[in-house]
Backbone:
């Protein structure tokens, strides 16, 4: 039996959606029909394309290979269909972002983009892991780094600064902070996501001996660091974009004006073919406008 194009497209949609149930909804068929098409492809290939786990379905090695062969072709077909045969087909952008970036930058402003672009559907997945844009159903990843991702296209978004913030009540009760070294009079909330904490680097950049610093709890997630700072547990050293809303609403105060620009930046990362999609270009342009 020759594998039908319909079956191959079904495989493509399942792999992109990461769920047979979601794929069935997207294609407007029953889950049973989805299973039959997958079975037909696997029988013709004589290989398993999906593996089942507690998290759902995942591509096998053979499935990854097939996905890489089909992705560009079917994306081009979908884009061509959208451009030439319908003006009402909804665009869908699947985004992977760090939880704190999604919370502080994306979610507060996403309503503006949706209102201006009602035909573009946005799905955001927040995860600290680095997703594989070639094999996972993700169109766009927002990553923090130097922008060098071999085999992918990256667009610079913003280069946030590390600033010292604290709750107003904590600063009212403690000593005045007029110089950077005065921060050592307070408990310092740590990040545990790297071998050397941001506070260590911050002190080194100012020739401050932090041997007498009092470090409080350490958190891997910046969202938890923000929460600890809001609760008055100490001073926090965070990227400015994470606390924009809290600073604006005076829930947090910039305790020390000695800001430290970091060499790292946030980048929108995607494949070359995906970057050519009009919806992706429009979304990246919008991201740049809100990230600066």
Residues:
């Amino acid at each position: 039996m020759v594998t039908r194009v319909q079956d191959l497209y079904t495989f493509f949609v399942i792999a992109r959606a990461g769920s047979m149930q979601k794929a069935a909804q997207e294609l407007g068929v029953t889950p049973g029909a989805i299973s039959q098409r997958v079975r037909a492809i696997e029988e013709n290939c004589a290989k398993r394309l999906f593996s089942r786990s507690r998290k759902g379905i995942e591509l096998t090695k053979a499935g990854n290979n097939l996905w890489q062969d089909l992705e560009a072709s079917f994306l081009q077909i979908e884009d061509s269909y959208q451009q030439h045969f319908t003006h009402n087909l909804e665009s869908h952008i699947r985004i992977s972002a760090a939880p704190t970036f999604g919370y502080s930058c994306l979610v507060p402003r996403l309503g503006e983009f949706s209102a201006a672009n009602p035909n573009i559907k946005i799905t955001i997945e927040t995860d600290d892991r680095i997703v594989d844009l070639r094999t996972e159903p993700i169109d766009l990843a927002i990553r923090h780094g130097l922008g060098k991702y071999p085999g992918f296209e990256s667009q610079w978004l913003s280069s946030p600064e590390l600033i010292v913030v604290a709750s107003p009540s904590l600063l009212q009760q403690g000593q005045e902070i007029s110089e950077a070294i005065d921060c050592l009079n307070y408990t310092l909330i740590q990040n545990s996501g790297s071998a050397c904490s941001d506070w260590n680097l911050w002190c080194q950049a100012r020739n401050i001996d932090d041997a007498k610093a009092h470090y409080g709890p350490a958190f891997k997630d910046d969202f938890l660091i923000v929460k600890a700072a809001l609760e008055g547990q100490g001073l926090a050293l965070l990227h400015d974009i994470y606390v924009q809303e809290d600073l604006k609403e005076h829930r947090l105060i910039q305790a020390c004006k000695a800001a430290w620009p970091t060499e790292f930046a946030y980048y929108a990362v995607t494949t070359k073919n995906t970057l050519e999609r009009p919806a992706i270009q429009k979304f990246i342009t919008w991201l740049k406008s809100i990230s600066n």
Remarks:
- Confidence is low (pLDDT under 50) at residues 86-90.
- The two ends are 55 Å apart (CA to CA).
- The first strand starts at residue 50 and ends at 53.
